[in-house]
Design goal:
By secondary structure, the chain is mainly beta. Helices cover about 10% and strands about 50% of the residues.
């Protein structure tokens, strides 16, 4: 009751504060409903929406948020936001989608809290892409403390030919209770798991003098600390693994090293925690009003994939984006080819120690899965590319990716016929092989598509409505046809 009163008081007081202090507030109220056939809603009605949409065939939500932006003197700035949501057939009945404060000085930002961040190291067309391999907008935000340079900053003395950007973050996964409720009998789950990520990207080139730019860099993330449990038949749970949570664990997450004697044997042989990441490359070409961009997002989960130790850079995402001169119908076209099928090859071995202790063996990487933290996920949705369906799709209550060996083709096209209208069309075709340790009975095939139109009427300032149609066909997630309507109102308060 006290929380409800506080939230209500916040919304009632906001217009008064805005008027008295002449500070800029932005608000958003949004409601969305999805109706579809099949076991699950069409994938692209659910994916890459920061966990706001449900995989269930019929669902809906209502969200309301406020943002405050305050420029200060000498390059300082404060931005803060609160975004609350509730829904039906969602992973939660009520949740805080965003609650953050950003403190910025020129191009440097310290961000604290839960926020829908689009500042992924490798920029892609967020409306058309299938997603990012290591971390993208497919899951509910992870609360964190994050220092970052969001946009490229030119290095002094290079005459704007060399620039960099990057971030460093520590946070905590908040889905422990969801995992416990979702988990099936004899299945495992984790609580109080910590999050770490970092990135560093460079850009070489000056498009004002040469119409070509090259981008390259690294993104790394880690799940660490926390406790692992097993669900028992009577509904209770027993703790089976207690990972260390001291300062040394934060260092091991920042600089991946083997765990100590207080970690399981697997962590002592490899690195402490679930470490993963991606190498990111981008090549931009400018020709008048045209822009062509090629990207490579190479995913890895061990040193052999990270450092090309065995020459196996077969997995990742290759993309081409074309941005056309301003016209009435088509503004951008995208193609992506994705593969996670190789996973360092099918080499498997029994146990961590074996009889050849001096021989390093790599292979059979179990992408997005982990024997302690179960999966690279948050509230059941995969943190990486959504074409690899997350644990929320598992009807047996297992928190893992049932198929992490996949090959897919993805296309997208969008347009802005006028200031009032915009549209996009995306489609994907994927083949799934399951996991090396538990392959599917046969190669499964899945087609996913979505067409969406958004209307922003000039006569109704701040209002917009989006209508989307999704069609899925295949024998992996199954057949489904559905529609989604989203109504949104945005505006400002204060000066």
């Amino acid at each position: 009751m006290n929380l409800s009163k506080s939230i209500l008081l916040f919304f009632l007081a906001t217009p008064v504060l805005a008027q008295e202090n002449s500070q800029e507030f932005q608000y958003r109220v949004e409601m969305s409903g999805t109706v579809s056939s099949g076991t699950y809603a069409p994938l692209w009605l659910t994916a890459n929406r920061f966990g706001m949409e449900s995989e269930k065939p019929n669902s809906g939500y209502l969200r309301a948020g406020l943002e405050w932006h305050k420029p200060l003197r000498k390059g300082w700035r404060i931005d803060a936001g609160l975004d609350l949501a509730g829904g039906v057939k969602q992973t939660s009945d009520f949740w805080i989608q965003q609650a953050y404060a950003d403190f910025s000085w020129k191009m440097l930002t310290l961000s604290v809290g839960s926020k829908e961040r689009m500042g992924f190291p490798l920029e892609k067309n967020s409306e058309l892409t299938s997603g990012w391999m290591a971390e993208g907008p497919n899951m509910r935000p992870i609360p964190q403390i994050r220092g970052e340079i969001k946009d490229y900053l030119s290095i002094p003395g290079t005459r704007q030919w060399l620039a960099f950007k990057g971030h460093l973050a520590y946070g905590i996964f908040t889905d422990g209770h969801w995992q416990e409720n979702f988990c099936g009998v004899n299945q495992k789950y984790a609580k109080k798991v910590m999050y770490h990520s970092k990135s560093l990207m460079f850009r070489l080139g000056n498009k004002e003098k040469l119409p070509v730019e090259f981008e390259f860099g690294l993104f790394m993330a880690t799940q660490f600390s926390g406790d692992q449990y097993q669900k028992l038949a009577d509904g209770s749970s027993k703790r089976i693994t207690d990972m260390p949570d001291g300062l040394k664990s934060y260092w091991h997450a920042f600089f991946p090293t083997a765990g100590g004697s207080d970690t399981p044997e697997g962590e002592q042989v490899n690195v402490e925690g679930n470490m993963l990441g991606s190498w990111n490359f981008g090549l931009n070409f400018y020709a008048g009003d045209w822009k062509i961009r090629a990207t490579l997002d190479h995913y890895f989960e061990d040193h052999s994939q990270m450092f090309w130790e065995y020459g196996r850079w077969k997995d990742g995402q290759l993309g081409i984006e074309v941005y056309l001169p301003k016209n009435k119908w088509v503004s951008a076209v995208l193609w992506e080819g994705i593969s996670t099928k190789d996973a360092s090859g099918p080499i498997l071995y029994d146990g961590f120690w074996g009889s050849f202790s001096d021989l390093q063996m790599s292979g059979g990487d179990d992408y997005y899965n982990h024997y302690i933290y179960q999966a690279w996920q948050h509230y059941g949705q995969g943190i990486g590319n959504p074409l690899l369906a997350g644990p929320v799709y598992n009807q047996d209550g297992s928190i893992c990716f049932k198929s992490n060996r996949m090959k897919a083709q993805h296309v997208g096209i969008s347009g802005n016929p006028s200031e009032e209208w915009k549209w996009r069309l995306i489609a994907s075709y994927a083949r799934h092989w399951g996991r090396y340790s538990s392959p599917l009975d046969k190669v499964r095939k899945q087609f996913n598509s979505m067409a969406e139109v958004t209307y922003l009427p000039q006569w109704a300032k701040g209002w917009s409505v989006s209508a989307a149609l999704g069609i899925d066909r295949g024998n992996y997630l199954g057949n489904s046809t559905g529609g989604m309507i989203t109504l949104r109102k945005t505006g400002g308060l204060g000066k």
